[in-house]
Amino acid sequence: MSNAAPAPVAPAVARIQSFAFVGIDAVPVTVEVQIASGLPAFLVVGLADKAVGEARERVRAALTALGLALPPKRILINLVPADLLKEGAHFDLPIALALLVGMGVIPHESAYAYAAVGELSLDGRINPVAGVLSAALGAVESDLGLICPAAQGAEARWAGSDLDILAPRDLQALITHFQGYQVLDPIPDPKRITLPPLPDLADIRGMPVGRRALEIAAAGGHSLLMCGPPGAGKSMLAARLPSILPDLTHEQKLESSRIHSVGGQLPGGMLVSRPPFREPHHSATLAALVGGGGKSRPGEVSMAHHGVLFLDEFPEFSRACLEALRQPIETGRMTVARASQTVTYPARFQLIAAMNPCRCGYLGDPERQCRKAPRCGEDYAGKISGPMMDRIDLNVTVQPVSPLEISRSARGEDSATVRMRVAAARERQIVRQNCCNAEADATAFVMTDAARETVEHAAEKLRLSARGLTRLLRVARTVADLDESEALEHRHVAEALGFRRR
What we know:
502 residues, alpha/beta, five-stranded parallel β-sheet, 21 helices, 16 strands, elongated
């Protein structure tokens, strides 16, 4: 009499859960497999794109590499719900897993406790895919474990230490785990690594106005436009902004990391722990900047969520790209509408832009003045629309520092010192209104009579729009927070006016 364990009983319809990604959200998708009598066929239904349709050949080849052959029957793969578009190769693994359950290779009682994402190679290896962090969070919500590629087990672990994660290197390891011959090792909690130091503000000599504008922008989350000739230090200032920004909260880290995970830009499985700093080239397309394309991927504005979007050579970006920034600057989200679906990504970023005063860059320089002045500067700045300029809180002219001043001046205040003031100002804002000043309701700000009179006079003199007036008050409130003042005073409004575009 044999003591061998009985073979798993194949269910009539095998079901394994996976996920489709709509924005950064993981929407549950059930992969159903039916193996029935009839002419041999391998069909995939349920609004699958080309990558999902090609899973048939990848799955067939992977099973063949393991010495398994598909039964000569009618195999139907159904992706539920059928009206939701399924995109991406991450459906390979759940399809293969459901087939193995349907063929009776692995017990369905064990496999049904997991959701799965992963792409298969022809030899059965499981390759990394985008969106594992969102899938892990989705598995937690569905009260399931998660099967993911071995290279992304650490990424999935950020969803919680209680999540049951299987991260096999290949399909063979997964099969032997479910059959009980060789159990996969558990995924340990991810280790926190020491990040490399950021560029320090102490490297900047002189430039007091630029440094002050950068501190105000960091303290209130304001947008900033720097204008100056080539080599004046605009890019150098922008590169040092992350060093004075406060750390992300745990919720902000998770949200920002989910965007990077869906975009396939979360290397090493580590969370985004610093405010992101994105600096796309001015030749970037509209889809690359704001999101979209064939699969509605997140763009640079979403990758910069809770961080900085630095646009150097601001007027050189296409008019369509610049105008597309207007909506996310106001709303903090980017909606990508396509015929097949509409996807919304978070996009609460801090816009930092830099530009030359004219195309040649030397407008106003008596030694290198171009012959087309002032028309050259007017045409160049005219590429930025009025509504776009109205959304920029701080405007500063960056004057070049002379070689003599660079060699003789002392090192400036370091980032750690400035960061302490910025963090203290941000803390006051969170306590007062639960958001930074760039997002606050300016009508609730307390101000002295002198400050109110200054604001009213400036609004009439400069013909400020309602948006322009609101942004002026927000900047003044940030100046007051840095000054540790409870109410807006005349000097705070006056300094904010100094950074307002005339």
